[in-house]
Amino acid sequence: MVVIGITGPTGAGKTTALEVIRRRGGVVLDGDAVYHRLLREDAGLRRDLENRFGDLTGADGGIDRKKLGAQVFADPAALADLNAIAYPRIVAAVEGEIARARSAGYQLAAIDAVGLVESGLIRLCGATLAVTAPAAVRVKRIMTREGIPEDYAWARVKAQPEDGFYARHCTVLLVNDCAGPEEFQLRVEQALDQLMNEKGGHFHES
């Protein structure tokens, strides 16, 4: 089975790339969804998080993500501790999902993760495709999509890695400076054709 990692900063257009994967009969494995499921279901993860961050119990009895977020997003050291606790579990869970997808007969899978490189999920991928876009374009998209003010949108954009980070770590870097989604979809199709046809090098079957 071919496993492709899809990453890139918020507002760049990853969703278009993931839609192309689905249309080709592939399965999309959502790294954020896996993390949120683990927060709900993994007792060991909860224990380790509360040993580090204190009681995180929310109104529903589960982990209150906002309570956790309040501690880590203003403190780089705390965020690094969270990642050190959570990332290995996320990788193991996604590896399990890949195995299940393979058993179900899928020939193509995509791992969707903003932190694909940082988490170690990249090690599960035969190739990686990063989607980026000019910062001003991303800001407008985030504001429209989430209804947030411009200064907050800029803060989110500036907090994420620059294009050079993705260029260094990913097999293909796609810049979404297209006039519309249809044009970018074609660009994604061409990039996937290149990846699927490439032999050896960075790309292989997993």
Quick overview:
This protein is α/β, with parallel strands linked by helices and 206 residues long. Helix content is 57%, strand content 12%.
Structure overview:
With 206 residues, the protein is an alpha/beta fold. The chain has a single domain, classed as P-loop containing nucleotide triphosphate hydrolases (Rossmann fold, 3-Layer(aba) Sandwich). The chain has helices at residues 14-23, 31-41, 43-53, 65-72, 76-103, 116-119, 135-146, 150-158, 163-169, 181-197, and strands spanning 2-7, 27-30, 108-112, 127-132, 172-175. It has a five-stranded parallel β-sheet with strand order 2-3-1-4-5, with helices on both faces. Helix 2 packs across helix 5.
Order of helices and strands: EHEHHHHEHEHHHEH
Main β-sheet: number of strands, strand sense, barrel status? 5 strands, parallel
Strand order of the largest sheet: 2-3-1-4-5
Please state roughly what percent of the residues sit in beta strands, choosing from under 5%, 5-15%, 15-25%, 25-35%, 35-45% or over 45%: 5-15%
Task: Produce the secondary structure layout.
Blueprint: E1 2-7, H1 14-23, E2 27-30, H2 31-41, H3 43-53, H4 65-72, H5 76-103, E3 108-112, H6 116-119, E4 127-132, H7 135-146, H8 150-158, H9 163-169, E5 172-175, H10 181-197
Parallel strand pairs: 1-3, 1-4, 2-3, 4-5
Helix pairs in contact: 2-5, 3-5, 7-8
